[in-house]
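Subject: sequence -> structure tokens, single chain

Hey, anyone have a minute? Need the predicted structure for the following. Not urgent.
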Amino acid sequence: MVTAEDVRKIAKLADVGIDDSELSEFTTQCSGILEYFAVLDTLDQNKPFIRDRYNVLREDEVLPSLTQEESLRNAGQTEKGYFKAPRVM
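Reply:
Had a minute. Here:
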């Protein structure tokens, strides 16, 4: 369990100012985080991790699309069949 003094030391190392009114809340939160790590420590690390799903993506499928002329019809400016945009640099 994390103590208030531990939280003060961590806050000082991280250069984060913590008021005494916040100390109780941060102590509880830090203790909760460490409890999650304790749960992870109970997992068997020698057992390989197997996922039930390996490819959830759909197959690529060619569908009808706009022609180049249709795509450029509403463009502000074009050049040699491409959209023309202002220079950035």
